[in-house]
Amino acid sequence: VEFYCKFYRTMLKYEKQIKQKERIRMKINILSIMFAFMLSISASAGEKITMILAGSPGGTFNAFNAELIKDLEKAGYEVDAQPGGSMIKGGQIYSGLNKENVFVFLPSSQLNAEDDFVDREHTVNTTEKHNFMFGVVNYKSLCVKSGTDLNTVFNTGNLLKIGMNEGERINDKYVERWNKVTKSKNIMVPYNSSGKQIKGLVTGDIDVTLVNEAKALRFSKEGLVTCNYTTNPNGGNGFDPLASKINDSWFGWKYEYLLLGHLKNSDTEFSKRFHKVVTAIINDPTSNAGKKIAKNGWFAQDLSQKDLKKKYKKVYKATSKLLK
Predict the structure, then answer these.
(1) pLDDT tens string 203-232
(2) Which pLDDT value is given to residue 58?
(3) 180 — phi, psi (to 5°)?
(4) pLDDT band at 5 (very low <50, low <70, confident <90, very high)
(5) What pLDDT sits at residue 232?
(6) What is the pLDDT of residues 19-65, one digit of tens each?
(7) 82-120: per-residue pLDDT in tens?
């Protein structure tokens, strides 16, 4: 009897797992069908987009842009991709172009908040509802060199070198808060790219870093770093919430990085149609862009243009608060 009871429970477990897998497959199939439908109604013949590649040539942003271009061309758009050189330069090039249907993908909320803090022109000057095409959220993870106990960075009395890549003012805010909570005297080491942050960990130039999750996931899999905590308040990508671990209610431990697609010099119908198409693309796990989003540990947003503007404002305000 005991044998049959165990056998029955085991079969129920397997049945549950099979049903879960079927639900996942069904969801993917539905999204794929929706994506295919959007492609079938997307671009009219000859519709062109000028895409400014805002970011370093070999960086995370332009690797995503390359995949998005494949999907847009599949949808029938003719894409003229132009190098931007960096996020700021790319945003400035975008804002200064007078061509029809100009597109750029970058963290406009953060960049524009930083611009206002130092009283300069916005990097991205198109922030009306019809300018927002899609949004992606990403977070940062706390990492140490592989083989190091990450939990020791929460000890009191530390004197660690913390690598940061948020600009001097925000860098200092994070380290000051860290020292206050842990009663330590850690020092901040500034970097200008996430790749250099990882290199600094591996070579021992720094002890710990807060780095974007695309890099955290990649180099964790390669066995070079250990990353257990994330600024995602709900946890994600296999990481636990940093705010819960550090036991501090400061909003910076839950700060989200918003990446937005902006479009300018388009008529209303083109803007609405392009928003629907590109939102379907990024939310489809089988599209080129969808696969890259998953690989980067990003979170695609399924939002209306109105809600994208609201999210832009929310992250703008949070960034402005960090800069004060």
Answers:
(1) 999 999 999 999 999 999 999 999 999 999
(2) 82
(3) -65, -45
(4) very low
(5) 97
(6) 554 554 555 555 555 555 555 455 554 699 999 999 888 888 999 99
(7) 999 899 999 999 999 999 999 999 999 999 999 999 999
Give dist(CA 215, CA 140) in Å, integer: 9
Q: Which residues contact 131 (CB under 8 A, 6 or more apart)?
A: 262, 263, 264, 271
Give CA–CA dist 79/73, Å, rounded.
Answer: 7
Of 141, 175, 173, 171, the closest CA to residue 245 belongs to 141
**How many whole angstroms separate alpha carbon 199 and alpha carbon 211?**
11
Residue closest to 53 by CA, chosen among 9, 105, 128: 105
Single-letter amino acid, residue 92: Q
Tell me, what amino acid is at 233?
Answer: P
33 alpha carbon, distance to own chain's centre: 25
